[in-house]
Structure formats: C-alpha cells, structure tokens
Amino acid sequence: MELGEFKAAVDRWLDQQAGALAPEFEGIGTLDQQMAQLRKVMRLSYEAGFMRMGWPERVGGLGGSNLLRAYLGEVLTARDIVEPGMYSMPEVLAPTMIDYAPPGLAAEMVPRLLSGEETWCQGFSEPGTGSNLGSLACRALPADDGWTVQGQKVWTSLAQYAARCVLLTRTGTPESTHRGITAFFVDMGSPGITIRPIESMHGVPEFNEVFFDDVFVPADRVLGEVNQGWSIAMDLLPYERSTALWHRAAYLRRRLERLVAEAPDGALDPAAVGEAAQQLLAFRARSRATQRRLAAGETLGPETSVDKVLLATAEQAVFDLVAEGLGTEVAMGDDPVSVRWRAEFLYSRAASIYGGSAEIQRNIIARRLLALGDDR
Amino acid sequence: MDAAERELFVGAVRRATDSAAGAVLDEALTDLGWADALESDRAEAVGVLFEAQGAAGVTSAALDLVMATALGMPDPGAAALVLPPLRRRDAPGRLGSGRCTVRGVGTAALSRRGRAVVVASTTHGAAEAVAIERGALEVAPVRGLDPDLGLVVVTGDFVAGDRESLGPVDWDLAVAAGQLAVAHELVGTARAALELARLHALERIQFGRPIAAFQAVRHHLAEALVSLEAASALATAAWEEPNPGTAALAKGLAGRSARTVVRHAQQVLAGIGFTLEHPLHRYVRRTMLLDQLLGAGAVLTRQSGADLLATGALPATLPL
Fold first, then answer.
1. ipTM
2. What CATH superfamily classification does B171-311 receive?
3. Which residues fall within 8 angstroms of residue B28, CB to CB, at 6 or more apart?
4. Residues of chain B with pLDDT under 50
5. B78-168 under CATH 2.40.110.10, yes or no
6. For an interface test with A, which of B198, B309, B317 has the most A Cβ atoms less than 10 Å from its Cβ?
7. Chain B residues 203-242 with a CB less than 8 Å from chain A
8. What pLDDT digit, counting tens, does each position of A217-233 carry?
9. B179 touching chain A per CB within 8 A
C-alpha cells in the first residue's frame, strides 16, 4: 500500500472508530489504565490490518515501507490515543526478533507483540551499567540444553506487564567487555524472576528492577550468536532513534499547541515560544529525513545520535515553557489535566538521560561523525 | 534531480564557488545553468549554491535572482533588488502622495547592474514593484564588520509616476525565498567554521596529545554539529512549505545556530582564531551579517513565537 492511500485509510478508520479508540480515563490515568488502553488500541489496529503494515510478511506483517508504521504512530499520538513512549517500544523489539531470532520463533512471537496480546521489555541497563553498556555483569552460564541467568537489570520499562524480555547477558569472562555479551529472548514467567517497580518522580512506575536468580533459558532462545550480543545492541540502537522519535515529535507538537491554547494571556515569553517552535520543527525535519533514508533502504548509524540530542533539546524546551505558561497548574493542580502536565514536565527532565545520555550522544558524534579520534 | 544529476550539479557549483567570486562567479553560474536549475528545482538549486557560497565565503548575485524570481519579475536576472535595512524584512520602499521613498541595502550585485527593482508598500498595505535606473538612487558602499560582503546602503526619493511600475507583487513570498537562501548560506558558513575548528583540534597538541582528545573540546564541536544539522534540516524541509511563517522559523534558527557554531569554533581555535592569520574571522564576520540580513535571528524568533501565540498553530506540518 502506498503512503498516501494508507494515510487516507487510517484517517478514515480513526474518524469512524474515534469512540472505540478513545481512552476511558482523563489525563494520564493510572499505569494499569494506560496499559489497558495501549493493548486495546494495538489489538484494534492489528485487527484492522494497520498495525501489520510496514512489517515483513514472515512475522505476520503485511509488508510495505517503514513510513506506514511511522504514520500510524504519528496519528495515534497526535490524536492523544496512545502515549508515545510505550507505544513505540515494538519499534526496537520487533526488529531485534526479525533480524536475530530463529525464523520460527520470530514468526510465532512478533504477532503477539504487534497485536497487543503481549507486552515485552528490554533488559539492557544494570545498577553498575548505565552509559557503559560494555560493562554489564548479569551472567548467563551454560547448563543442560540451555543457560542459567544470574544477576540484575534496572530501568526495565514495563517489566511488570511483560511476557518476554530481550536480555543482554555476560557470557564471556568478566573482563571480556563488549566481546563477551549474548542476547536472549526470555519468558518473564520463568521461575527465579522477581520484578520490583521503581517509584519515579513523575508518578508513573513504568521502570523496574528485575532480578534473575538461576533462571533457566532454553538453548533455542539465543538471539544471534553466542558472544555477539554487542553487535545486536549496536545495530538496534539507531532504531531507538528513528521511528520512535518521529512518533515523539508528533506528541510534542500536539502538547506545544495545547500549551499555547491553555496558557493565560501574557504568561509565555514570545521569544521562548519561538525558540521552542524552531527546535521542535527542526527536530521533526531531521527525524523525517531519517524516516525517508530508512524507507530508501539506507542503514541507520551514528548520525541518529543527532536526532536524539535534538529530541531532548526540543522536549525540554517545550516543557520548560509548560513550567512557565502553566506554572500554577504544574505546581499546585490536582485535577487530571494538571496532573498530566506535571507528569510530562517531570518526565521531560529524563529526555537527555534515557536511551543514551546527551553526553554519550555527544561522544558518539565527536568520534563517529566528526572523526576526532579516541578521547584519551 | 536524480542522485546522479544532483552529484554533477553539486560538483559544478562547488567548483564555481571555490574558484570564483562576484561577477566571475555570476558568469560561472550562468555557464553551468544555475538559473535553469532554479526554475526546475528551486529547493535543490538554492540549497546547493547557498551552502557552497557560505562555505567558500564568496558572494554572487544569486540572492537578487532568487527573490526577483519569487516576485515574478519578467527578466529576473536583469536587475538588482533593493533589500530591507539590516534586521528588517518589510519592503524597502514606500509609496504615498505620488512619491516613492527608499531606505534599504543592496548586495554587491547592485553595484554591477544598471537597473534596480524596488518593492514599495502602498498606503493600502499592498506591495508594488518599481523599476529604476541605479543612477537615480543614492548608493553608498559600506565597510563595517564584513567589507568583503560588498553591502551598500541605498536611499532614494523620487516622483513615483516617472518610473516604470512592474505591478503588484507578493513581497512576503519573496522575503520567504530570500530568507531560506540566506538560511542555507548561514549553514554553509557555519559548516566551514566548524571544519576549521575540527582540523585545529586534531593538529594542536597540548599536554602531549591533540586537544581533540579532551572531552570539553569534543563536546564544543559536537554541540556545534548538532546545532548546524538542526538548522540545515529545517531550511531544507521548509522548501516544501515555503510560507512566510516557516521561512522565518528557518532563518531565525539558522542565524541563531550559526552564531552558536562560530562561538564554539572560536573557543576551540582560541588564540590563532583571534588573528587575521587564520581564516576563521571571515566566517565570524559573515555569520554576524547574514544573521541580520532579511530579519535578525532574535527578532524573527520573537515574531515566530508571537505568531504562534496569536494563531495557536505552527506554520508548517512537515508531513511524512
């Protein structure tokens, strides 16, 4: 299906199904409510065929360009039907499976993810492993017909709802750094897994600590090759900085326009509004160019670090304005609309931290895009 | 343009801007068919030339041509265009009581052309183009911060009926096209300044290693690249929706970004970048001037914000 035709069909469907797709709560609701909403929207979009567009047929998709996925997420976000961060998680998880899982496993599992039947999580960060992913310590040891995993992950989004986890583990010696990492596809119902949600400052406990205590993982759940997990992570990180960011740009645009509508006259400094508008549109323009390169078959690489820095800059500029224009609501409001603004303002502080901090992105830009050599 | 044609076009334009400036560059652009490219693929033609022109630090009559074409002038290459005074973007002429008064600036092209086009606002808020011999205007050369840019100050006061009217025009659309051209030139200027700083960081040894090894230096340069790429992305995308609001956002961001880039570049180049022995100063000067041409970055940014507050919507959708 061509993009133009797809856009028209999606828009028509969203108009017709507006009632069925709308959230049943005001503001951000609880995390349980948000998850139920996300699953409902994914199921309806999958049944209507739209959620299958842009994914390959061998994993239950209907084929077509990545631009179709980008558009679907854009409109679902721009119409305030889904929260972009949670909605976009399959943009990294599904490609991992498509590129690295045994074909039968990918064909069996990916439809469950896309249809909202299952939620998955990504086990990368650890207490001692934030920016320095090569230092991870959660161990997987060979066992009969598989592996046993021992260790801890942290900042694992939606682990408490997840049926599966794409998990990075240490299979080499502790000193093997990036050469001794293996990726697994782990059932979250396996004995030995304990999940503890983290109370975070924006009030939505979407992040978790996940403890693995001698968790058995069958041999056929290795993703890619043993000790090649680093290259999987490196291949996939650019995807975390492509379609998901396009969805986020649509969300920021809606929130900026909403802010301008809600803020009292004179509460916003025109110069600051102009700067935020420039940053937001520049981020959108950059992200669109990335989408088009992806659609043209280009492989994404370190240049997507620029996209990530632009997202963080735009998101913080928009929500800094929120803190000015709706300062009283953010500070004191306990109604659903104010609670949402407050949660979003607080979450925006993390935009320069999650998914590779602003400093790490600048290190990548310096080394890979500016060819400045090693930093030592 | 397909990829192969584009590559040839970029190569030809860069050879021209690297080897010639001013009238000679205008001739080279005529020979390589730049005016035809402007008609068939305006975004590509303007983007490629103005970034190359900015990077090489040279001038041409192309800005006059871009704006005269957007105004729908019958022979856009024949006349130079009078531009608004620095920092402003309203029409440089004013028609009223039978007279036309002119206050503006001109590019180096104005010194080379026998005729100029002045766009003047009328008492009803419309805009009209007037053709005039250069001799009827007072044209004073400017040295200022960037003498190489060849800007002139233009003033005039004449009986309107004595001059040839070229009819009503859409000045705002011409300004939008000119702003996008200058935005690309700022991007090219900034890219060249960043490259000078990058090379210096790799060559300059302190504490036994290239200063490029120090994270503080690396982050200056990375920040400069991010800023530049943001301006480049918006200037390029804006051609798909070249309305005055989008062009103002793109030009405002380009001016602010280019100033950020030259600030970082100057910090990294340190002592040598402060001398006339090193070329950085040309890019610093050019950036300051271009930031003010057809609306200053800070002024445009504030106006874009005021427009958003008034209308409630961003001027561009940038659809997939």
1. 0.96
2. Butyryl-CoA Dehydrogenase, subunit A, domain 3 (1.20.140.10)
3. B16, B19, B20
4. none
5. yes
6. B309
7. 210, 212-215, 218-219, 221-223, 225-226, 229-231, 233-234, 236-238
8. 999 999 999 999 999 99
9. no
